[in-house]
Amino acid sequence: MNKFYIQIALFLLSVSIYLNNKTIATESAPEIAKKIKSKNSHVTVSVYMNDNPLATESALEIAKKIQSKDRYATVSVYMNDKPLPTEPAPGKPKKIKPKDLYVTSEEIYEKNKELLCTNPEEIKNAEKLMNEAVEHLKYHATCKKGYKAISHIVRDHMVFFKKKHQGDTDVVRVTYRKMDTNRYNKVVADIWNPDVIKLVEYTYTKTKFVRVYNPNLVIIQQRFKKWPWSHEKYFYALAKKVQLSKYESIIVMTSANIIDHHPSDKEYKNTIIESANSFTTEIDSEEDIRSGKLKKTFVRLAGYLIQECQTYVGVTYINSIDGNCYIYT
Asked: Is the pLDDT reported for residue 57 higher than 80?
């Protein structure tokens, strides 16, 4: 049977459609197409004409013809009760589970390489300071002594704690969970990514790298405000990402003696990481900072301890920022 007769068979003559070996229609092709679609857009269809299979063309060619009537049907063609090789109708959407995509440290580094610091002494001092900051973050995230629960949110199992460090410095600790351990790498990557607003940050937060020492050590600028009409605040801080083990990572931030040309004469001191006060560098800040339009804040210590647990990813967030009323307190 040539193509001419096949076309007549499909579009003009009566066609029998079998679904799971049961006849569902013996009507014209257009009417059959409607019924196929109403039954199920992904049914397996056997195509027969007057009890004779339409099998003189390849299954793919027949699939193309059926597609013109029901573009998502999968066509099975039989000849003398023997199945012929078949393919999905062209255009049928593939069911592919989306990957848990995230931007890696290396990709972020490549994007910001023009900010690379070339001063070896500054790089050395930054590494030394942030190695110490990692230990402070680990201590405040794991030591429960002195913390008092202040609030909680059922979603994400979030619990908020607060304590006084050495009597007069507020430290807030937040614990929450991300279900599914397969998300561990994504959770770490998203927290490091400056383009992602974190769960514990204000909605109106903008973060960017302003200096890069290596893919896992940078200086960031963060601008934030609680409400659209609120006065915008900002801080500069060194930030470091470190993998403690296969199942545990830390991302830590601390401010130092960063000269950003803000007109305020207030002197900021880091009362948690005292060595930060001796780290000095200069940043070429924007005009709104230089003119004092933004309120300056100072990060004594902030960051995340991320742990892969058996059924979830556990996150502990530490926050001690001078000049910032914490988001949930």
From this structure: no
